[in-house]
Design a protein that fits this description.
Rossmann fold
């Protein structure tokens, strides 16, 4: 066996180190935010903090896409119910970007005047507004005299963004959200900006209806709809009362679960800056909010209690402690009947002045197709010219390209990587001659406090050329299949260091989520598994796993230079290792960059309707200022040779 056995041949337990490292950073950041929040003693203090939270939220979602354009709303059908009707509504939140809704309108006596309106955000159901549990919320509300606008989110209901000829090229709901969200992150924005804009425009539509009193607007939703409700509580002052359900917990509680969220829920710097879940509540003060939770949710209830109690102190500053309430119902993750009843009564009290006397039953629901606004069941089936989320991202790319101007400082800012420092304390735990004249060493050392990296160093007596630091997709775990390449490089007179940055090879992280592989046709993609979850944690810490791995590579280069007594190295990579090599190459003393294959540009990933997400790191905003070809051009100007192959004689220079 050429590589390491478990736990670095028994020398060190490394399978938890990246998990512990990220959690420790998060705990310190959350504790620092707790101290900052405790310093808020006056309304003036909080108003300053509220503005900071909102400004940061808008910054990290990439701003709102605006401007407000003609909604071009159309009603495609009406369903007559007992004491209410349902209008099937389609509007354009952006030109050509269609939004499907159901508007529930109560029978309104002429003498009554406009009624309160409720914006309803469905959770992660494939059929969205038509899901039976969500229909029941809308029916209970309309039967209590509220006008209710239920809006299909992106990737759900009739708004699949990757639907073509009756087929989903990308699985809808959570997978589609993350598929598009990873690309949004490359552009320095969040998919949440489009969720929010759709809802802002939905409010524009609801408030413009003559049946609706625009001064009495509420909002509710559960799960992903609870997320959307929380975001809108920050953004839109027209919402006078809110009931976010089965979402509010805390970042601290979330970290303990090991679970992964959709990309629109993983906001850049959310842990080190804001918003935490209590911020959504506090920033809604002094307006009335009821937090709905269930006892056995994966959005753990202890975090919910913590966030409500943290926000309560702010409500007390405004003399409105009674306007922040928590309802915990029995059950698992759902808009259960008890929460539905509580939501209706909350709006009865705070939007109509009525007593909270409503008791729910089991209202009749309709089949999905009955509530469809489109003939085909999908916007892109009815409107061939419909703009999709892919089109919107390409348009955003064109805006950002005008500002590109690469330099290593911009790369470092994007990677936000830790600086290599401190003693490495290298260990050579095995040294032997594995082939005639070729020595192999098993090495590990500290990249930084809390992070061990490892590698296999192969060399012969010939040390005439600059050494190679080699990065493979799975690091030293692939040494057997890469051995011929290593031998060929050693034959050139080079030392070769097959290196494992954190989370790779012999220092790979144990699995922390139950999720694995999603299959579309013949293609298998990894979603919501350990690597994705940890990348999202890093993003919420304002950094990236690949940035941390770049720091490890720089540490590995430092070690290789010390051992080989050379001034520069050849940096080589294959697969995802090639991307890591390309990024590290601009920050290191490198003479050659050998990549197999050449990592495609991030621009190409944005322009491709379908891409391979496992090849794309979660990195915030490179396309605000640079792309991978800029790195290659920069290196060539510095005299670095860039090859599209690891073994130079078989490669060709760019």
């Amino acid at each position: 066996m050429l590589g390491f056995s478990a736990f670095l041949d028994g020398y060190h337990d490394v399978e938890n180190q990246l998990i512990d490292y990220l959690r420790s950073k998060a705990e310190r950041a959350i504790a620092a935010k707790d101290v900052e929040k405790q310093r808020i003693r006056t309304r003036e203090d909080f108003e300053k903090y509220r503005k900071e939270v909102l400004d940061h939220f808008l910054e990290v979602i990439g701003g709102l896409p605006g401007p407000r354009t003609d909604l071009k709303a159309e009603t495609t059908g009406v369903i007559e119910g007992d004491g209410y009707r349902i209008e099937k509504v389609i509007f354009q939140s952006l030109p050509g970007f269609y939004v499907t809704c159901n508007l529930y309108l109560p029978e309104i006596p002429a003498s009554t005047g406009p009624v309160p309106g409720i914006l309803f955000a469905p959770g992660h159901s494939k059929v969205a507004k038509a899901a039976p549990a969500y229909q029941k919320v809308c029916l209970d509300l309309v039967n209590n005299g509220f006008a209710v606008l239920a809006v299909d989110p992106i990737g759900q209901g009739e708004r699949f963004q990757y639907w073509r000829n009756g087929h989903e090229d990308v699985e809808s709901t959570i997978v589609e959200h993350t598929y598009a969200g990873i690309k949004c992150s490359l552009l320095g924005m969040s998919l949440a900006r489009y969720f929010c804009w759709d809802l802002i425009r939905a409010l524009d539509y609801l408030c413009a209806r003559p049946e609706v009193d625009e001064n009495r607007i509420g909002m509710t939703g559960t799960s992903g709809g609870g997320t959307q409700t929380s975001y809108m509580m920050l953004l839109d002052q027209r919402i006078k009362a809110a009931v976010p359900c089965t979402y509010i917990t805390s970042r601290r509680a979330y970290l303990a679960t090991g679970q992964a969220h959709d990309m629109e829920q993983n906001l850049f710097e959310a842990i080190v800056h804001s918003p935490d879940h209590d911020d959504f509540l506090a920033c809604f003060s002094p307006r009335p909010v009821l937090v709905g939770a269930v006892e056995s949710d994966f959005f753990n209830v202890e975090g919910t209690v913590e966030s409500v109690e943290t926000a309560r102190r702010i409500y007390e500053l405004y003399g409105a402690a009674d306007k922040l309430q928590l309802k915990i119902a029995p059950g698992t993750h759902a808009f259960v009947p008890e929460l539905r009843e509580a939501a209706v009564n909350w709006f009865r009290v705070h939007l109509t002045g009525l007593e909270p006397s409503f008791r729910t039953d089991d209202p009749f629901v309709r089949a999905t197709h009955e509530l469809n606004c489109t003939r085909s069941g999908q916007i892109v089936g009815d409107y061939p010219d419909a703009v999709t989320i892919h089109d919107l991202m390409v348009a955003e790319l064109e805006k950002r390209k005008q500002k590109w101007a690469f330099n290593p400082r911009l790369l470092e800012r994007t990677l936000a990587h830790p600086k290599p420092e401190g003693p490495k304390y290298p260990r050579i735990i095995q040294k032997d001659e594995v082939e005639d004249g070729i020595i192999r060493e098993k090495v590990f050392f500290w990249s930084e406090k809390g992070i061990i990296v490892s590698g296999l160093l192969a060399y012969s007596a010939d040390n005439s050329k600059e050494p190679v630091l080699l990065l493979l997709e799975h690091g030293t775990s692939q040494v057997e299949e890469a051995w011929e390449t290593i031998i060929a490089l050693v034959a050139e007179g080079r030392w070769v260091f097959l290196f494992d940055p954190r989370g790779v090879g012999a220092v790979a992280t144990r699995s922390i989520t139950p999720h694995g592989i999603t299959t579309w046709g013949t293609e298998a993609f990894h979603f919501f598994e350990t690597d994705y979850r940890l990348q999202c944690d890093a993003q919420m810490l304002g950094t990236s796993i690949i940035g941390m791995q770049v720091a490890d590579v720089l540490r590995g280069i430092e070690y290789l230079i010390e051992r080989s007594h050379k001034e520069r190295v050849v940096l080589a990579g294959r697969g995802r290792g090639a991307l890591l090599a390309a990024l590290a190459g601009a920050l290191a003393p490198v003479s050659q960059l050998r990549l197999s294959p050449l990592p495609p540009s991030f621009e190409r990933i944005i322009r491709k309707r379908l891409y391979r997400p496992e090849r794309v790191p979660i990195m915030f905003g490179p396309l605000n200022s640079w792309d991978l070809p800029d790195i290659y051009h920069y290196l060539k100007r510095q005299g670095v040779e860039v090859y599209q192959h690891i073994t130079e004689p078989l490669g060709y220079r760019l």
